[in-house]
Design brief:
Blueprint lengths: L13 H6 L2 E3 L6 E3 L1 E4 L12 H13 L4 E3 L8 H9 L9 E6 L6 H4 L4 H15 L4 E6 L8 H17 L3 E8 L2 H10 L6 E5 L9 H10 L3 E5 L20 H17 L3 H10 L6 E5 L3 H13 L3 H15 L7 H13 L1
Parallel strand pairs: 3-4, 3-10, 4-5, 5-6, 6-7, 7-8, 8-9, 9-10
Antiparallel strand pairs: 1-2
Length: about 350
């Protein structure tokens, strides 16, 4: 098996890198690891974290073949980017692709989003400074479905990102969001080249909405990143955070699946990751990992799949989810946001 272009002899564990599967990210020329590293967990968003353990996790992840890292100024409101910058110390820049975002920032709903050109410029410069890098491989507009209109994304945010690409401070532009149709509409209307989409929780055990759109993105040579495959904790034995916005039908089905897995001594999160890794279309499954135990656990799923007991549990819980009449909560979260803004 050939080594990826991010391989650095003397830094990587060559045998581990050779085990990893790499897929092209649309037309970017980047071949990225099937499992990629999310950093929202490098903040209070998902409970406690240890900065030194985050650093060890990043180093181990890259040495073992993960070559794509995603972050955002919204995660911990700058904390995740700052910590990631420290984590990247001592790692050759060639060894990883780095993605961050613009447009989503604060906790207060009235200050949360800003798609303006001025704020976008400030944000990118701050991200470069926080992470102590000269360029970002992929700069993304964060959650375009929360914008007051798609026009501001098309006329201000994306053209500003293009300025940074032309200046060599970013290489490619992407967009992220819950709503597949909005992502597609943005690509079709944009005069700025959009190289990737990152979609949340739409290709999971409980929701396969993204499948319908994959051929449409592929026809436009747009790379696809599949994020939130654990559905913000719904598809784990630990369960979701209080802020998770799914309706009762989804939560009840996930509770039933969770209880079955616990009874069988199986981790639902492992089944969720396995399921998403089997789906065709996305170049990578993006998972937040804040310690080496979680990293190694997820890498084991990538390399070894499921045991027979886990496969039996997987088959059982998929029958539970097949009965769902509602698949997602994205529109609820967007509606709640606009209610909070107008209050």
């Amino acid at each position: 098996m050939s080594l990826p272009e991010t391989f650095v002899k003397g830094f990587h564990d060559e045998s581990e890198v050779k085990k990893m599967k790499y897929l092209p990210l649309g037309g970017t020329g980047m071949n990225i690891s099937q499992l990629s590293l999310g950093t929202a967990t490098f903040s209070y968003f998902y409970g406690d974290y240890n900065e030194e353990e985050c650093k060890r996790t990043v180093h181990d992840a890259i040495k073992k073949g993960i070559n794509y890292i995603d972050t955002a100024p919204y995660y911990g409101h700058g904390t995740a980017e700052e910590i990631l910058g420290k984590c990247l110390e001592g790692i050759p820049r060639q060894a990883y692709y780095l993605a961050t975002k613009v447009a989503r920032y604060e906790k207060d709903p009235k200050l949360m989003f800003d798609f303006s050109a001025e704020k976008t410029r400030q944000s990118i410069e701050q991200s470069l400074k926080r992470m102590e890098v000269d360029y970002i491989d992929l700069i993304q507009v964060h959650d375009i479905d929360f914008a007051p209109s798609l026009d501001i994304v098309l006329k201000e945010t994306l053209p500003t990102l293009h300025e940074f690409v032309k200046a060599g401070k970013a290489k490619y532009i992407g967009i992220t969001g819950y709503t597949c149709s909005t992502l597609l509409e943005c690509i079709e209307k944009s005069t700025v080249p959009i190289s990737t989409i990152l979609n949340y929780a739409r290709l999971t055990m409980i929701d396969d909405t993204l499948k319908e759109f994959i051929p449409k993105f592929q026809m436009k040579n747009v790379g696809i990143l599949n994020a939130a495959v654990h559905a913000q904790g719904l598809l784990t034995n630990a369960g979701p955070s209080d802020w998770q916005a799914a309706c009762k039908e989804i939560k009840d089905a996930c509770t039933q699946a969770r209880q079955h897995c616990i009874e069988k001594g199986v981790e639902l999160g492992k089944l969720a990751l396995y399921h998403s890794l089997q789906q065709q279309g996305p170049a990578s499954v993006l998972v937040g990992m804040k310690d080496r135990q979680i990293l190694d656990y997820n890498l084991k799923v990538v390399h070894d799949g499921l045991t027979s007991d886990e496969q039996a549990a997987y088959n059982h819980v998929m029958k539970i989810f097949d009965k769902l009449t509602v698949k997602h909560w994205g529109t609820t979260e967007i509606e709640n946001y606009w209610k909070a803004v107008s209050a």
